[in-house]
Amino acid sequence: MGKVFDPITIEILWRRLISIVDEADSSVARTAFSSLLRDAHDYTCMFTDRFGRELAQGTFATPGQAGAMALGIKKLINSLPEDYFKPGDVLITNDPWILAGHLNDVCVLSPIYYKGNLVAYTACVFHHSDIGGRVSSDNHEVFEEGLFIPPVKLYEEGVLNQAILEIIRWNVRTPEQVIGDIRSQIAANHVCSEKIKQMLEEASLDTLDDLADQIIDITEKRIREEIEKIPDGTYYSEGIIEQPKGRDDIVIKAKVEIKGSDIIVDLDGSSPQVDWGGNVVYNFTYAYVFMAIKSMFAPDIPNNEGCARPIKLYAPYGSIVNCKFPAACAARMQIGHFLTEIIYKAMAPVLPDRVIAGSGGTPAAMNVFYGRRKDGTPWHSVIIRGGGMGASLKSDGKYVFIFPANGANTPVEIFENDTPLIVERRELITDSGGPGRTRGGLGKREVFIVPDDDYAPVPPVNLGIQAGRYVYPPEGLFGGKPGRKGAFLVNGEEGNPYGLTQLMPGDVVTIDAPGGGGYGDPKERDPNLVLEDVIEGYVSLESARRDYGVSINPETMEIDWEETEKLRKGKS
Amino acid sequence: MEKKRFRLGCDIGGTFTDFVLLDDLTGEIHTAKCLTTPKDPSDAVEEGIKILSKKLPGFVSELDEFIHGTTLVINSIIERKGAKTGLITTKGFRDVLEIGREIRYAPYDIFAEYPKPLVPRRLRMEVDERIRSDGTILKPLNVDEARQVVRKLVSMGVESIAVCLINSFENPIHEKMIEEIIHEEAPWLSTSISYKVLPQIKEYERTSTVVTNAYVKPLTERYLSKLKDRLSALGFKGKLFIMLSSGGITSVEIAKEFPVRIIESGPTAAVIAAQYYGKHFNISEMFCFDMGGTTAKSCLIQKGEAGIVQTFEVGRVQRFMRGSGLTIQVPVVDLMEIGAGGGSIAKISKMGTLQVGPESAGADPGPICYDRGGEDPCVTDADLLLGYLDENYFLGGEMKLNKDKAKHGIKKKIAEPLNVSLEQAIWGIHDLINETMAAAAKTHIAEKGGNPKIVTIAAFGGAGPVHAYGLAKKLGAKRIMVPPNAGVGSAMGFFTAPRAFDVLVSHKVSLSKADFNSIEEIFKKLEKDAEATFLSEYSQGGIIFSRSLDMRFVGQGSEISIPIPNKPFFEFKKEEIRKMFDEHYEKLYGRTYPESEIEFINFKVRAHLPEKLLKLSKIENQRGGDISLAIKGKRLAFSQRVKDFIPFTVYDRYKLFPGAKFRGPAIIEERESTIVAGEDTEITVDEYGFVWIEIREG
Prior knowledge:
The structure holds 2 protein chains of 2 kinds. By secondary structure, chain A is α+β, with helices and mostly antiparallel strands.
């Protein structure tokens, strides 16, 4: 029987663990080189106990990376021989099947030793904006997608393995940035290690084991209590996801069974894996199923191993949601992010107040721009972006957000500093939110220009996109209408969002992010709210009339109540 | 010139306005407290000065400095009572303010709320113009359109205009042109232009800061002008200073121009005072706890220093959640403020449970017991019924509290609907607000790497000493310190605030290419500029300059700050600078990379005067050590240990003496506050009149 902590001490040490990870997390913004990390926050820090059980993750973690890491780190640690690690070791890998499902997500992991004993591991996954390879969704195998780093020691007992760093350096387009960001990962792990040791010393502990057991048990108990409140039953849903032109749609089938305090998710019947980069590894599928369950049952409980215990996931091997090596997987979020809303859809009848309609930020979109400046220097920048979130029972959809993933945009001024391009606009799109009793969140338009004057870069400028919802818009719920679809235009004409686009000086690219789906019948929306939306320009006069049945006098900007009543009665 | 002898500190809080008058000749302190007058806060200032004048006739003409802190600015943001504000920005970017940075601050919470922008979309106008990232002009400003836009905003009735164009920090020419047009078209309009308010990269953060400045500028201007006039009318001839959020003080002119820098002006004072006490008593971990009528402010002070952060948020829509407020990018003392005060309203939540705060009854109408028409039960009502406050000695007896009304109100609105006893209701209100504050305190302390069990709580504010004991019990803290005049004690911070000015210039150049002679020129010019501003503000000599560098690896996104010794910059060798950088970097992040190139980003100078020490005046041992003379009597008050009313001994703080020592349960009364200490405490008074409460284990 180990040491038993009183509830106050547990609470304090637990908060401390989270704040330590958050501190490591915020060091990244100060040390990282690429804008995707320092501005867009596409990284996750966490640490596990010595058995690889997740204990805490950064508050601003990206759910996909975090969920996948929680599984991956544990498997990795348990697959290594005992005594594999020595103090001062640093391990690096980007194996998509071990970690977060594509090569750009590189994990750096360090063991933490205290008083000569291994007490914990600290790990971080950074999304590197460049990992070499052909930047596109339409590769056929993982080998085309960039450099594959199996789990190897970057440092052995404090000594750098220069060979590994050199291999990385010569396989990427922007070595200074990539190497700098790997160093930032090492720095983040260092911050975490030092603070953990300090905490152990102050709390007079030799190991984290007892504390870990109790934190995990409390967490498991709390989430099980929430699940138990829902009546037992089995719920079904199906998601249809578009593919590049000329291919059949992908189908994901979900069966969600609530049994006491357990949840069993079975994805049997989902489409087989595909010959392009949309394939999802098991860890990543798990991460977004977990996201749905966590958000419905216990959004406020800090994440750790305990949250995961009640959840079981079956995904057929060789399917799109559990792909086999060496499937291409760079664009796995184009499919994987849909899992959250597919689970919501299954649960909507029984939990109508805990789900949201389809979101324009599902999937998250990524634009990879790279090329050479006029003087020949290479540049490379990645923008991630979201859309309008789906509406819910009580509130309009929020915007503009990446959902269910997370991350920030790149400020226009930073992007223009890092690249030779000009951003002409970044604005909300009127009428893009799906009409409903509560309205879907608005989508966003961004327009990029390749200069053709003295600032013109060496052609071409490459643009790789990962996105979706060009064919099927985010769906509404309970009678709510869908949000607006996404769009990708080059000089006003439809482009191919799945390939690699080569832009010339003078080209204008328009990228529209979709809006969220509405919730409930739009004719039931409070006409005063519709009027407010019209005044602010979120909804047009025409849409107010057509979709919401609200007539507004364009001169006075007042509601014509009589007409409105007629419009609403006419069609119910 | 004869030196004037007095300095007056004045802190306008949500409920009370506090005054501390310092006699620099004798070190003597006089205090006053009166209700804040939200409609015109300068009414309360005048009222307080009149109260003090009764004690010290004619002191106003002998005032050297009037140092002022106010919550006016932050309250107008939280309550959304600022000016009707318009925004002018580059074509294509009017939604920057609303789109923000897109990050979800609570990744697993799909219902998280986000703050609404201070300027609604219909008041956000675009003009055709564009500056490139290197400062060159891509598209010249369409002047006619700009004029139309200004006219349109005027016709829509805006009082204040913010201007923030893309890449303007590299070249403000278009912003300056628009500024000119506004002055021509509508010279009465208040303007906030980004190149003046915050010439820094990142359009959302800059726009948000400039818009906030614009939103609060008209009311700050009106208020400060009026205050200045009223003070003059009262015979004030000294200097008027305003407390900055960063802990320094500044002139009225700068405060009017950049009100966004005085948002945390009130709360900061307590931290500055606590910092001073922390140093004086050599306390390594101190938790400053300032609880007033509307909010509780807290800050962990480690080794006498509170942290400063460069970015903060106001008006968080989800309590305690980082990311749920409006982003403001100016330096500010790293404190935490929550909606918990004596005026916090108790009510029944939607879930049918008790809820206390964050809404406050403020000064008007205030808690029920103030008998000024308030009908909502507040924390102060509960504190009164728990026996902690004396209805006949509130503000030294100047304000009689109505116990019966408070009792009736809590019975009707809390006890009966919840079906609990009156006793359970009043204790529940007190205990719940303590729990709320303890949760926030734990988060704040943990974030800064502290341990709540070893902190000494420094209690300030009218309600601070009443609740410090309950807070300490929840934190596991073992010691509480209550300075003399604790009820107004935060205003002491005004006298200890550093007289300092920070200036910086951005100039990106790599270490290998840098010319150290021209860097010396940069520093010299900065020092000259700082000195000029400084002399106009303080008209004193003896300025000290401290230099520092912001540096980073070439291509990195943010810098580390490196203080450098004061000697001509060309005397440094490049290797020395490199070594300083590597040492700092390694200390922060474990490893450094001497082979990678580094660069300078900012050159910074802080001009400051030697710290003006405040002598804490010792109190005399005039009572000959007989504690019984300080006892006012006994009163039944609630014991959190036995959950019942027990007799507490009531002491008169003004009759306590150095070396006095006694045990709880005790209530110690002073004019502006009341100290509560439970049965498990030992209380001592030191030679400066500070009350120290030690809580025994268990």
